[in-house]
Structures are given as C-alpha cells and as structure tokens.
C-alpha cells in the first residue's frame, strides 16, 4: 500500500478526479492528439500561443489516472510559460520519467509528484502521453502522435 | 462426470514451475490466460529434449538426427490431427500462430477467390487479427467487409448475421470464443447457415481449443486456426486446419524451400499439402512442444477442464456481481472462464497496476478488440481469464485486491 501511495499520490488522485483545464479550446493556434495504442488512452491538447507565450492550454480525452493527472498537471504548469520553457519542461519531464534521480527537480515544481511512475516502467507511457502531444503540437502545428 | 477436486488441482499446479513465482513477496496469481497460458514441465522438457537429443533440420536429411527430428515433427502433426479430429493429416499446416494462419487464408484463398464487390462477414467481437487481414484483402481486391452485430450481452445476433449472407458473400470468419468477453459463439448454427449458401467458414479457435473439445469434422468448418501458446504449448507455433479440397486448390503463401516440387529458372512446381504452405525451416521444437502440450491437456481431459473452469467462472462472476461499482462486460449465456469488467470511475490501467502489487496478473486495455470497446463505449476493460490451474482461493485474493483499488482511489 505504501508503494502504491508513492505512485498514486493525493495530488494525482485529485487531478484525476477533477482534471484542470479539461475542455476544448475554441480558436486555438495549436492542437495535437496523443494516442497510446497499447491501452487505447487518448488525449487531445489545445494551445493558444501568442508572441511566443502559451496564453491558454487545455485538454480533452479518456485515460487512466496517471495519464489524466499528468495532462492536467502539465496544462497547469505550462499556462503562461514561453514555448522555450515548454520545450525545456518536456525534456526535464522525460528525464524525471527515465533517469534514476533528477537534480533539476526544483525546476519542474508540482510535476515531481509523478516521479513515482518511474518505478513502474509499464506506466511511463501513460505519464508521457500528454507531453508527447505537446511536442507534436509545438513542432507541427496540427497533427497526431502516438507513444510508440 | 468427475470434476477436478481441490487435491487434483494442487497436483496439477505442481506441474507448472512458474506458478511458484512470488510477485512483491506474494504468491503469483496468474489470471492472464487468455493472453497466454503457462507451460507445464513436460512441455518445457519436450522442447529442451528436442535440442539436447533429437535436433536437426527436418525433411530430406539422410542422417540419424534428421530422421529422428523429422519423425518427431511429423508425429506432432498426427497429434494435432487427432486432437481436432481432422480427416487427413495433411490438413494440418504448421504456422507461427493464429495471426499468421488467418493472414495465410486471406492472402491465398482470399486472393484467389474473392473479387471486387464480394463480401466477407466477420463479427463485432473479433480480435484485430480476424479484422485487419480481411481489411487488407478488401483493400487489395475491392471486396467489402460486413460486420455481424452483437447484443449488449455480447452475443452475435443470429438473425442479423443470417441477413448478411447473400450470393456476394464469399467467406465467413468468426471467433469460436471471444478473447475479450468469453462468449462461446453458436458456430454450429453459423456454419450450417453459411453452408446452405455454399459459403466457407473460418473459425478463429485461439480461445476455444484450451477450454473445450473441438472436432473439425463434427463442426464441418472449412478452416480452423489456433496458437500453441494459448494451449500450454510454446510460442511461435500455431495451426491452420483447412479442408483438403480447399488447401489443394489454394496457391502457396510464401515461396522458398520445402514448399516446392521442382525448381528451374523457367518454372517451379509446388509441393503437395501440407508442405506447399510450409516454406522454410519450420519451428521443429515448437511443433514437438505443442504435441507435448496436447498430450498433457488430454491427460487431464478437456471435459474435466471445461467443467472445472465453468465452476471457477461461476464463482468469480458471482463474487464480482456483489459490487455495484463494477460492471461485467460480456454476460453471454455460454462463456469460457473470461471475465472483463470496468469500475465506475477507475481506469482499467490503474486497476491492473494495483492488482499487480498484490501479485495478481490480469490484462488491462482493449485486448486487441478496439471496435468492441467502441461498441461498449469504454476505453478499456480489466480482464481476468482463468485456467484449470487457478483456484477459488485465488479468486478470493483477487476480490480482496479489488478493495485495495477502491482504497487507493478513496471510493
């Protein structure tokens, strides 16, 4: 149970139950879909970027607690940040999921609660799904991406 | 009919070394048998003994080991023939698995006989491996894929299936047992009604052969396919059964060694069945392992297995039904020991991770049946699939670990 609490922290349970920025964004400038063919999880990401600043970001989709909470936390984290900050966060988050320990934890704030996922290799793709969609949205204005 | 006793099951469990595994210091409870079954020691021994004592390439060799390996390989064919009661031994083709067998039929029988405008009938509950090969064939030929609908219980609506049969229908390909729902389809009725219109039927028996006696002559199916690894045998080996009259007329699948009769640069003539469809060096140890698995299953008795697994199914279904926040997906009247379920507010993936902490192995996701998930309007399900080496006590642990799921999610 204590191991599971490391994974399913209160913040994750909370964001799963009440995902933030969970809606479609009309007139967005960027959007992308993330799809995990292993489990069928889907996330659609919307961004409104002006003058290099992410003014608004939201998502829709259906997924497990890890993928939903990760998407929710990501939108919260990126709101108001620059595109470069978002790119940097993508790499830091990836590191958080794969590296044994992260020295730059302080730079990703609340996203740290997802660190427990790295002990569950089968679930890393759940946590990174929204981030891959972000990368796709930023790189090719419109598109779809899978975790594979 | 004697049903396996608790003592029998304990004895059977000793035959499977992997069942001694501890997961997170807890005894493994393996409820993922629809994905793949574990292997009894006799199968593991048969495979290693093949490599230790009897291994060489098969066919055409004049030396001792080649003769020995060929004898064992071909005797495995006889074992499979006997297992499904095929009329002729050459109706048994060794392939890699169910998927390859279906692709083989699509690309040989299909390419030769199915033309633009023709129709192929499948059902809503098919595994992707009994959807995609037909879609590929349709793309290549201009044929049309028709889907027989199912009801909410997860049963093919037979009247609707019958309505789809017409003079454009060239093949019916359905699962004997659904891998996601456990539904046992009324394949006898399906075959009879297709045959009235001279339409051949392929049965995907991947989920059937380990749970019940399958007799291809009694069924009168035209093709039947299954995998070894879901029948307590090794991975990488599977079976295509086809009626001789079809197999003989079908063009070959892959070209290469063994499948030829005479090769010149001007023209090649093909070997007789089954060799025409077995290009290249076959999975010799896999075939020998599969034969060993069949002998093992027969020693327990498929009727005994069926009766015992039915008791397990009844027990696990009743236990799950006690909880109002869990819904069972697939409540057909006739089922094998597969239970798919969804929690009201908890995703299957999370259920799977939490159960794994308790040592319980289930499968979560779409189970390679995305259209079926779409039908039930769920993104994924959790699936417990039981085998004869599972016990009611394991079901109790499984049920207890479901309450852990609620605890973690505070519901």
Q: Can you give a write-up of this model?
A:
The complex is a heterodimer of chains A (148) and B (411). Chain A has helices spanning 2-7, 10-17, 65-78, 83-98, 124-139, and strands at 30-36, 41-50, 53-62, 142-146. In chain A, a hairpin with a 2-residue loop joins strand 2 and strand 3 (53-62). Chain A has 148 residues and is of the alpha+beta class. In chain A, strands 3-2-1-4 form a 4-stranded mixed β-sheet, with helices on one face. With 411 residues, chain B is an alpha/beta fold. Chain B contains 14 helices and 17 strands. Chain B has helices at residues 6-14, 41-53, 64-84, 98-113, 132-141, 158-164, 187-195, 216-219, 244-249, 284-300, 302-321, 348-357, 370-376, 392-409; strands at 22-23, 26-27, 29-30, 92-95, 119-123, 144-148, 169-175, 201-204, 223-227, 238-242, 260-263, 268-270, 326-329, 338-343, 360-361, 363-365, 381-385. Chain B is globular and about 75 Å long. Chain B starts with 5 loop residues before the first helix and ends with a helix. The model of chain B has no long low-confidence stretch (mean pLDDT 97). The A-B interface holds A 1, 3-5, 7-8, 13, 17, 38-42, 62-68, 120, 122-123, 126 and B 24, 345-350, 353-354, 357, 364-366, 370, 373, 379-380, 404, 407-410.
